[in-house]
Structure formats: structure tokens, C-alpha cells
Amino acid sequence: MADPKASNKKLEGKVAIITGGASGIGEATVHLFIDHGVRAVVIADIQDEKGEKLAASTGHRCACTYVHCDVRKEQDVESLVQSTIQLYGRLDIMFCNAGIASQSLQNILEFDLSSYEKLFAINVGGVAASIKHAGRAMVKANTKGSIICTASIAASVGSDRHTDYVMSKNTLLALMRCASTQLGPHGIRVNCVSPGPVATPLLCEAFGMGAEDAETSFASMYSLKNNGVLKVKHVADAVLFLASEESQFITGHNLVVDGGIQIVKSS
User: Fold this and answer.
1) Where do the TM regions start and end (predicted)?
2) How far apart are CA 244 and CA 13, in angstroms?
């Protein structure tokens, strides 16, 4: 008898890499990709204990491996892509999700250039390296792949703090648009997903809040009411859409997932 859920598996047979995949949005996306039939998923992170535990807990559902990868080091990223292809024969989806928050308030009058350089090395340089090497592999194999980058609604607004973070996410949008233009002739799509504030471990640490307090604080910002609070699963759902054939004619796009916070701010 045919599996009644088979038609709902949007990534059947695909091979995916998820950077920053050990926790938060990345972890939620690992689970969702597996639910939708990926043949293999490679979790790339520097959180070795969490990454190895996640790979071990999901390995019975599909081929799932963890690779230590510091995206600041281009050699790590190149090796990540090459080892994925050696293991699984192809690469269909690259989710460039690794990133960090500002390490200080970063007001422009007290701008710390060393903190800015560290943040940009991860949030921008790491994504550029990931797109470069995933794109090269897809072009070489003639794979009509999908590359998705995690930006933020911070890219569309100003801020009285976290200047370096806002700069990095603005830069990601420019990078995505350039990459989508250049890789489009090869049939490779490049898009961004821009979450609103979601209570990931990274964001909770940055704001000095627990998850419940953060969610309560964020919920008051939405224009959407009575829909609950923004969760990592909602962001993962958007990534799934951009990774799947449902978005086969969407490229160079920034998909905002924020419960309407931008609408409120602009009104």
C-alpha cells in the first residue's frame, strides 16, 4: 500500500547542508527536512556536543551526520561541501544559517571595530563562503539547487544599538541578490528568510532573558493577534518552502516571517 504521506514529502531524495544546525532555527529545520524526506542532512556547527547528539538522535530516520565547521574559515566550509558530496554524491540544498548576535550594544559613537570584524567574519564572510562553495558544487554537477540564507527583519529597520548586527544582515540581502543574479543562469535559486524576534538560545542570551519572558515580550509587537507567538518552527516552515520545488520560480527574494512587526513599525 502506498504511503499516504508520501505526496507530502517535499524534499524526497534531496541532500542538504545546514550550517548552525545544532540548535535554534537550524535544529528545527533539521527535523522538518527529515520529516519531508531528505535522503541525507549534514549538520554543520561548532557546538560539537549538541550537533553530535542531534545527528545521533535522528540518524534512524535518514542519513544524518555532524561536521565541525567554523564558517569563519573558508577551508572548513570547502571541506564541508566536499565531504558531503563524497558521502552522498550530490548537494541539493544549502541553508546558510550560522550566525551570531552583537557582542555589545555597538552604539555608533562607541563602535568596537574588533567586535564588528568578528561578527562580520561569521554573519557575512561565513555565508559568502557557504554560497561560493555550494554554488561551485551545484554548477559543476549541473544541480538546480536551492541556497537559503538566514537574514533578519533587522535588515529593514534602523536601531539605536547592535549596529554591527544590523549592518551584517543588510549586507546579507545584498549578497543574496548578487548571488541569485549570478547563479540564476545555472538554475540555482538563492533566497533569504528574515525572522522577527524568536526565542532561540542565541537571542535569549543576547537579551538576557529566558524563553518564556522573551516570547511574552515579543508577542506584543505583532500585528497578527491570537496566532500565538513566533516559534523556530515557523521560520523552518519558510525555509522548507524556499528549499522545495514549491518555490521553483522564486529567487532573489527575502521572505519575512515576523507576525507583521514591520507593518506595525512602519505605520
Assistant:
1) none
2) 11
- List 41's β-bridge partners, or say none: 16, 64
Question: Which H/E stretch holds residue 263?
Answer: helix 261-266
> Cell 544549502 appears where?
94
How are strands ordered across the β-sheet holding 93-96? Answer: 63-68, 40-45, 15-19, 93-96, 146-150, 189-195, 254-257
How many C-beta atoms lie closer than 10 Å to residue 4's C-beta?
7
Alpha carbons 122 and 127: distance in angstroms, whole number: 7
Beta-carbon count within 10 A of 24 CB: 22
Ranges of H-type helices in 36-161:
48-58, 74-88, 113-120, 126-141
Clarify whether 165 is annotated catalytic. Answer: yes
- Cβ-based burial of 70 (10 A; exposed 0-12, middle 13-18, buried ≥19): middle
Determine which helix (DSSP H) or strand (DSSP E) holds 96, and give its type and residue range. Answer: strand 93-96
Q: Which three cell numbers stand for residue 19?
A: 550550517
Q: What is the pLDDT of residue 119?
A: 96
pLDDT digits (tens, 9 = 90+) for 123-161: 999 999 999 999 999 999 999 999 999 999 988 877 888
Distance from C-alpha of 255 to C-alpha of 84, rounded to nearest angstrom: 27
Q: Which is the catalytic residue, given 66, 116, 165, 222?
A: 165
- The answer for residues whose C-beta is within 8 angstroms of residue 72's C-beta and 6 or more apart is 121, 122, 125, 126
